[in-house]
Specification:
globular, mainly alpha, 4% strand, 232 residues, 3 strands
């Protein structure tokens, strides 16, 4: 959104994207998608040559007219061992209590998230799914049913959004509600600590683990791709 404001005032912008789905939905004027993990937007640490190639590719997009333009960086370099990657669900042992009432838990989180919005002037990463926050207890109920059967839907899903894409975006929105609420209550917590709390101690994290398993069990590559995003 900021990029579009700058472009409207005659300042060309470019950006680097780590999540293609988000960029396709937000549609910034110019963006370079890179195939690197979170925390490694320029690629492998201490690899100056690779980092310069990424920066050059992003700056080269300034020659393109405002589109939106979304280009792919044509390399896939592993980040190496210097810096740990983000915590994934598979790296966290779930507590027995995590299998509780995810719908009731989400209602409590929504009340906490309202305080986040008040403190931060309404700023939030929530909104990818297109479903209002107050409806997310219903969305969590859908996710529970989907984890059981691989079926179901939510009223209001955009007609041009596939079911696996919607599940992925709903999972991202659910994580936004939980993560932002946790940051407000635990401001000193690191991102890794919050991820371990979500995947290890919350009922919502337990539901998303099961959703991931349901998606990954499909033979459809679109469902398998969504599974990866749900559990990170």
């Amino acid at each position: 959104m900021l990029a579009r404001v700058l472009e409207a005032h005659g300042i060309a912008t470019t950006s680097i994207s780590l999540v293609r789905e988000h960029t396709e939905k937000i549609k910034p004027p110019r963006a370079l998608f890179v195939p690197f993990p979170f925390g490694h937007a320029l690629g492998r640490p201490n690899d100056a040559a690779l980092q310069h190639r990424v920066l050059t590719a992003a700056l080269d997009l300034l020659a393109a007219p405002a589109g939106p333009v979304l280009a792919d960086f044509p390399e896939d370099a592993e980040p190496g061992d210097e810096t740990p990657g983000p915590v994934q669900a598979s790296a966290v042992q779930a507590a027995a209590a995590a299998a509780g009432d995810a719908v009731a838990e989400t209602k409590d989180v929504l009340r906490a998230h309202a305080r986040w919005l008040a403190v931060h002037g309404g700023r939030t990463t929530f909104g990818l799914s297109g479903i209002a926050a107050e409806r997310f207890p219903d969305v969590v109920g859908f996710l529970q049913r989907f984890a059981e059967t691989g079926e179901g839907d939510v009223a209001g899903r955009a007609a041009d959004v596939s079911l696996p894409a919607f599940v992925r975006w709903a999972a991202d929105d659910l994580k936004s509600l939980y993560y932002e609420s946790r940051v407000l209550s635990q401001p000193a917590a690191t991102g890794a600590e919050i991820a371990r709390w979500f995947w290890g101690e919350t009922a919502a994290g337990h539901v998303l683990r099961r959703v991931r398993d349901r998606l990954d069990a499909s033979e459809d590559p679109r469902w398998k791709a969504a599974a990866f995003g749900v559990a990170r």
